[in-house]
Amino acid sequence: MLKGIAASAGVSVAKVYKLETPNVVIEKKQGDAEAEIKKFDEALEKTKKDIEGVKERAAKRLSEEELAVFDAHLMMAGDPELASQIKNMIQSESVNAEYATDVVATQMVEMFESMDNEYFKERAADVKDVTFRLKCNLLGLLIPDLTSIDEDSIIVAHDLTPSDTAQLNEYVKGFATEIGGKTSHSAIMANSLEIPAVVGCPGVMDAVKTGDVLALDALDGVVEVNPDEATIQAYQEKAKAYAKEKEELKVLVSEKSVTKDGHEVELAGNIGGFKDVEGVLKNGGEGVGLFRTEFLYMNSDHFPTEDEQFEAYKQVLEGMQGKRVVVRTLDIGGDKHLSYYEFPNEMNPFLGYRAIRLCLKEQDIFRTQLRALCRASVYGRLCIMFPMIATVKEFCDAKAIFEDVKKELISEGVQVADNIEVGMMVEIPAAAVLADQFAKYADFFSIGTNDLIQYSMAADRMSEHVSYLYQPYNPSVLRLIANTIKGAHSQGKWAGMCGAMAGEPNAVPILLGLGLDEFSMSATQILKARKVVKSLSYEEMKDLAQECLNKQTAEEVLEYVQSKVEQ
Ligand code: PEP
Ligand code: MG
């Protein structure tokens, strides 16, 4: 049995599909140039066909935007420069095709990587990916093709890249990876596909081979290899119980989120784009508490134009049928890059030039987004929030730009809603501590615990080495949250939360007791949270929350909540 991080809830038992990349060993040989060029042309054709095949199979599940990674690979495979450099080398040095491919690929990768620009770094990744396929084809090595999985399987991998997750089909019943955390790319993808995932599970690759039976318990974050019959049955029972609970929760879809003693809160969903709106509504979401607009930018090869953005926001606002939609302005930087924008080279990008810091400097980018948002505002109930606010001045500067953009549009004769709320993410401890002052200017807060925890504990949220410090229940984190909510309420403003903590069943009682007004989470967590809210008394949770604030450790808090609240 191996321990990992439960990143997407559920339980599965299925055969292992071990994602192993072939070991490519290149030897330099002298060869007949003509024969080697012929071999190269054939391998290149096969490579193009392979990528097309993967794309075609992936297209059954993915949008055009999500398929872009394959287009980039096809473009690279068809690049005449790459082919001619390799052929020239075969010709002039009479070397074997795989050796020439390896040398040219290494040179190209080094050249792109040395350019210190995100766009070229991605091209380097494309060259690596495509030439890896090419070398495997030249050597007759088999490349794993996830789209070809045609029986129920659990994928075990060191990590899953965006192009891997783009290939998952309906036979994939879950995955376990050696690296990653709760908020890594693969975890977010598993949640949106609604398949169980355990990530940050060191040693899992060595423990399995393809064809083994794996029990993946992504409720408790464990995997078990080749369990005995009785254990398999126990996991299957657990999977059934979980599926049954999911089914039972469905009756809560159109119910209000109200405690036993009549205190009502709002349960909303986090989205990355229009395609997630249906999931929020289907799961009884009362609004969108976080629209991460950076995906619009990341899935494009240019800064999305005002019109492109307008369409995207309009679609979401209309889709949510008048329910509140909180749109976060561009939160780029840290680990999120754009192929067409050069970020400065920094020692600590998570503490660097990102999000609102960038938007206040690059005001054209910011104004374009705000114009698009203001234009879309008449199609629903729009709230705008700024990410990574650290000082009151930053918030006021950002808000002033918003006001200016709004005035500009009105003077152009464009209609803008007059009830747009303008708030901020509280995800930097400085903002949480000074919340009462921020609340004089912001219409609302949304607490981003993913970052708030990493900055409070000084623990990189992406690193499994320090994942033990990612402690939502640490009383110091709870006190920052309590102070934020108190600060909002002192000025008659509302406080929500859109970090992963908002959807944790053990956290809901505490947050409720601290007075949180809105909880925004993955769509699939909403109904469970509603069940928890409906089972609690607000008055009792106020006392419970105060007790939690006075504990010393996260473990004590969790134990206390579990002893008081039955789930
Ligand atoms: C957060 O920091 O909690 C948050 C919701 O934002 P993101 O995860 O996109 O950084
Ligand atoms: Mg954040």
From TrEMBL:
EC main group: transferase
GO MF term list: kinase activity; metal ion binding; phosphoenolpyruvate-protein phosphotransferase activity
Residues reported to bind Mg(2+): E427, D451
Catalytic activity of the protein: L-histidyl-[protein] + phosphoenolpyruvate = N(pros)-phospho-L-histidyl-[protein] + pyruvate
Compartment(s) where it occurs, according to its Swiss-Prot or TrEMBL record: Cytoplasm
Residues annotated for phosphoenolpyruvate binding in this entry: R292, R328, N450, D451, R461
UniProt-recorded name of the protein: Phosphoenolpyruvate-protein phosphotransferase
Naturally occurring in which organism (per UniProt): Faecalicoccus pleomorphus
Taxonomic lineage of the native organism: Bacteria, Bacillati, Bacillota, Erysipelotrichia, Erysipelotrichales
